[in-house]
Every structure is written in C-alpha cells, then in structure tokens.
C-alpha cells in the first residue's frame, strides 16, 4: 500500500484535534460540574433533563406562590387576631354597664368604645405594600371615616384574591373582605358578608360599636337616663358586640386554617423541589473525579502525541540514507 508523504501529518493533525475537543469537553465538565449542556452531549438524557426541568420549574413556581400567600395570610391572621382582641375589650366594657354608674363614668366608657371603634376601622383599612388588604379586588379602603361618622365604601367588592399553589387547578383564597352593611342607609350598593358584617347572624360590627358609643354618651347629654342607658346596652348593644366578637373569632380560625394548609403545602413542595433537583443532577451532573481523571489522561495523551509527532516530523531524507 502506498503511503503519501503527508499521510502522517494529516493523521497527527486529526488526532490532535480530537484530543483538543476532548480536553475542552472535560475542562467544561470540570468547571461547570455538568455532563450535559447541549443536546449533542447526550440526546436521550438531554430530553429527560428538559422534562425534569419543566417539572422543577413548575414546583418552584408553586413554592414561591405558596410563600407569598403565606406572608399575606400571616398579615390577615394578625389583623383578625387584633380585631378579636379589640372587640373583646368592647364586650368587657359593655358587660359591666349598669345603673350604679353615673353619667361621667358612662361618658368615659363611651370614649373608650370610640377608641376601639377607631382601632377597628384602622384594622379594616389596613394595608400591605401600599395596597388595601380588605376592600376586595377593587383595591379600595372598605370604610370611610369622617369625624365620628363611618360608612362603608360603595366601591369595594366581595371578590377575594386566590393563589395557585398546586397542580390540577387547586387554588386557595388568600384574601379577606371586611364586608359591607347598609350602615346609616347611606350605601346604595348591595351589602355583602365579611369579617365586619354577616347577614346570616345579623352581625354588624361597626353599627354595634357606634350605637354602643352613642348610647353610653346619652346619659351625660341628658337624652336618656342612666337606667335607660344600662337597659339598652345590656339588652341590645352588648349582644350585638358579642356577635361581632364571635364573627371575628370565626375569621381567626379561618386564617389559622389557611396558614396551616399553606405550611403543609410549603413543606411538601420544598421536599418535591429537592427531589426534582436531585433527579436533574442525576441526569445532567458529571462525576467530578472521573472528569478530572479523563482531563488529566487526555492532556497526557495530547502531550505525548505532540512529542512523538515532533520527533517523527524532524526526520529528514538524509536521516533515512545514513
């Protein structure tokens, strides 16, 4: 068989190029820790990695959404706990009202109730990141205050926010609404239920507090006797306040249940994301020790090929004739 003069250089060049490509491959693997960075590295495992990456991205998205929803529900739960505490204090004040108090005592109680009323309004109008929490999806404050007068905002609605926290269309309500009653008959929009108003139990928190405050002040104003004030409080406005306490307590339970659900979901998703990452690593990650060994071996082979080629290529025709 005839061997041309450029046969060895061509073969050497091809071998060196092959070794260079391997060097680059093992260097990249050693630097990145990845066995697959493009489809040509391993078409089948590349496809598997894409499927697992899609699953990982979806679960990570659900996990992020769950964490955000958990933060929002913590705000809601704190607000409902604060509301329950404030209304319980109003119930305590109303419970001790009787005919043995004088007009000044009742006026002082009225001022305490007015302070609680203002606190309840602040809770209902509470914000997070500049957005109103309890006005529904309208984004408006639920309660409008003007001096000692309060009314529900006609622009609010009963639509609550929800979050997709799992596959299969499962969504969890993350928002609450204050509700809206026909307070003072000045709101033309329809009433709807929330943590301040419940049509099923005839609970109207704001109205009960307003009426309790004004009734307690009536004796000092001379419009009612102390006995009339005590009777009205015990028979009408104390039961109304107690129903408001019960309603707030119900929402404390609702928000606590949502937090528990979100906590369980977060734990499950955290574990699933961990498994997804491990599955991805099993497909795409390289055995670092093996990659370093291959790199070292390839570099040795490359150097040996260069040295051998250099020796052969330095031989001349006169060297063969000697």
What would you say this structure looks like, in words?
The chain is mainly alpha-helical and 322 residues long. The chain has a domain at 56-277: f41 fragment of flagellin, N-terminal domain. It is 65% helix and 7% strand. It has helices at residues 7-32, 43-95, 103-124, 205-221, 226-284, 288-314, 317-321; strands at 127-128, 131-132, 143-146, 149-152, 162-164, 171-173, 197-198, 203-204. Strands 1-2 form a two-stranded antiparallel ribbon. Strands 3-4 form a two-stranded antiparallel ribbon. Strands 5-6 form a two-stranded antiparallel sheet. A hairpin with a 6-residue loop joins strand 5 (162-164) and strand 6 (171-173). Helix 2 packs antiparallel against helix 3. The longest helix has 59 residues, at 226-284.
Strand content: 5-15%
Along the chain, the helix and strand elements come as: HHHEEEEEEEEHHHH
The CA-CA distance between the termini, in Å, is 25 Å
Judged by helices, strands and strand pairing, the structural class is mainly alpha
The radius of gyration computed from the alpha-carbon positions, rounded to a whole number of angstroms, is 38 Å
The coarse silhouette is rod-shaped
Order of strands in the sheet with most strands: 1-2
Please identify which CATH superfamily of the domain at 56-277 we are dealing with: f41 fragment of flagellin, N-terminal domain
Share of residues in helices? 55-70%
Question: What value does the average pLDDT take?
Answer: 82
- Looking at the overall shape, the CATH architecture of the domain at 56-277 is Up-down Bundle
CATH class of the domain at 56-277: Mainly Alpha
Number of helices: 7
């Amino acid at each position: 068989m005839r061997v041309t003069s450029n046969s060895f250089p061509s073969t050497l060049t091809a071998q060196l190029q092959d070794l260079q490509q391997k060097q680059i491959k093992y260097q990249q693997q050693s630097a990145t820790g990845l066995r697959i960075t493009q489809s040509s590295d391993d078409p089948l495992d590349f496809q598997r990695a894409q499927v697992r990456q899609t699953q990982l991205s979806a679960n990570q998205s659900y996990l992020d959404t769950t964490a955000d929803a958990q933060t929002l529900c913590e705000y809601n739960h704190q607000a409902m706990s604060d509301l329950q505490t404030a209304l319980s204090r109003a119930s305590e004040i109303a419970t001790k009202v009787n005919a043995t108090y004088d007009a000044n005592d009742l006026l002082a109680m009225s001022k305490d109730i007015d302070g609680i009323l203002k606190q309840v309004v602040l809770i209902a109008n509470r914000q997070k990141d500049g957005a109103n929490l309890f006005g529904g999806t309208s984004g408006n404050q639920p309660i409008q205050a003007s001096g000692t007068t309060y009314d529900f905002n006609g622009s609010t609605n009963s639509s609550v926010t929800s979050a997709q926290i799992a596959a299969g269309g499962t969504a969890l309500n993350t928002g609450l609404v204050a509700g809206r009653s026909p307070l003072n008959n000045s709101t033309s929009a329809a009433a709807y239920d929330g943590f301040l108003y419940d049509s099923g139990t005839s609970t109207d928190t704001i109205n009960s507090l307003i009426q309790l405050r004004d009734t307690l002040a009536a004796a000092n104003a001379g419009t009612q006797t102390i006995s009339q004030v005590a009777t009205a409080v015990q028979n009408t406005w104390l039961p109304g306040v107690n129903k408001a306490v019960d309603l707030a307590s119900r929402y404390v339970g609702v928000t606590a249940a949502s937090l528990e659900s979100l906590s369980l979901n977060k734990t499950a998703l955290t574990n699933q994301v961990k498994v997804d990452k491990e599955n991805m690593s099993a497909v795409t990650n390289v055995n670092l020790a093996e990659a370093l060994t291959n790199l070292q071996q390839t570099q040795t082979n490359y150097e040996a090929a260069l040295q051998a080629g250099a020796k052969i290529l330095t031989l001349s025709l006169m060297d063969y004739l000697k």
